[in-house]
Amino acid sequence: MGLFRSSKPGDMGRRRRKSSCRPKAEVFESRLLMAVTDGNGFQYALNNLDHQVYQFDGGNNWHAILADVGSIGVDHGGFLYALDYGDHKVYEHDTGSNWHAIGSNVTQMAVDGTGNLYSLGIADHQIYAHDGGSAWHVAGGNAGAIAVDSGGTLYAMNYVDHQVYQHMAGSTWQGDGGGVSQIGVDRGGVLYALSFIDHQVYQHDGGNAWHADATGVASIGVDRGGYLYALNFVDHNVYEHDSGASWHVDGGAVAQIGVDRGGYLYALGLADHQLYEHDQGVTWHVDSTNLGQIAVDNGGYLYGLNIVDHQVYEHDGGGYWHLDGSNASVIAVDAAGGLYALGGDGQVYQHLAGTSWQVVGGNVGQIAVDGGGYLYALGTGDARVYQHDATGLWHVVGTGVTRIGIGGGGLLYAVGSTSQVFQHDSGTVWHPVSNAVTIS
Description:
Elements: H1 25-29, E1 32-37, E2 43-47, E3 53-56, E4 62-66, E5 69-74, E6 80-84, E7 89-93, E8 99-103, E9 106-111, E10 117-121, E11 127-130, E12 136-140, E13 143-148, E14 154-158, E15 164-169, E16 172-175, E17 180-185, E18 191-195, E19 201-204, E20 210-214, E21 217-222, E22 228-232, E23 238-241, E24 247-251, E25 254-259, E26 265-269, E27 275-278, E28 284-288, E29 291-296, E30 302-306, E31 312-315, E32 321-325, E33 328-333, E34 339-343, E35 348-351, E36 357-361, E37 364-369, E38 375-379, E39 385-388, E40 394-398, E41 401-406, E42 412-416, E43 421-424, E44 430-433
Antiparallel strand pairs: 1-2, 2-3, 3-4, 5-6, 6-7, 7-8, 9-10, 10-11, 11-12, 13-14, 14-15, 15-16, 17-18, 18-19, 19-20, 21-22, 22-23, 23-24, 25-26, 26-27, 27-28, 29-30, 30-31, 31-32, 33-34, 34-35, 35-36, 37-38, 38-39, 39-40, 41-42, 42-43, 43-44
């Protein structure tokens, strides 16, 4: 693919974020994403507009003390921690004004109801529990996401078996829902899950029950303000969930949505191929043009595939795009958050941490990722469909195929040699369906 990186902005359009000044206390408090008090009684808050941590002086002012922060939390020892989404490190705040890195390669951080600090590794997908000193201990594996609800319970989504697990104690986890492709906790601390089987969004009751909250959903995302959004694959509208049980249309003619590591919500236009950034109100701003696909990996990095020059660009979280790969026809992110691209040479490339790509498959005509996050490839010489597993191996799941594609709800379809269309069940079974089904 001739993959390389450039330090110059990509030719996809760029926009500088509006500058953010420290607002007055009364205005500032209405914009807080998270407010905590440490063991010494000092108040801190994470502003969801500028991603800075502010310390309250006890009077009428807040002072910025750390930037590029995705989340904060106070553990049972009263220590303040922050996750920097730029360098993916966890920082501990001392009793003075210093921050010390105590963990790296972290994509999520959370503190549960008993004050235990957890982090999720980007590369190894392991959940780590902090001992309150300088050590981290593995508390779980194969995690695609972690979240803590308003009751202080820690949840994890396993990207291999697609189950949601509730953390009990120590390293014990209890299954709490299956067939899940995404989870998220909104600003009210409510846990939601998207089922890739029936395409419904489910709301967790805080105990052991789930209640259907929306149907026909292709993907969900929680932005930096804690607002929950869903993309409906039937009408292609983006819906915002209110604090009750209602959904409100917040955008139309959308092909994809994604939330990056800074919590910014993006939508890709279905017809105009423009990428829009949401302002947390009701307005969308054009961020770039000529995009055929977008994808957010397990590190929260946003990527776009340009339909004109067939290059892959990485968004820097500000207003710039950097060239990250060339001669690509398709990009996709699997259930583990790995980014893949199909090159013009018929090879499948996996994006590694940093600037490198490695070949993981060859003689491929098409790739696709279904609603469950499974990666598939169609061989050019043998007309076989291959499924990529969590260990990096490919397994034959279909033969005699001329084309594959994804239909509504993320279902995988294949066209046989007789032009018959088949729907895949995510296992090894294909069901004949109407040839009129639309796949892409």
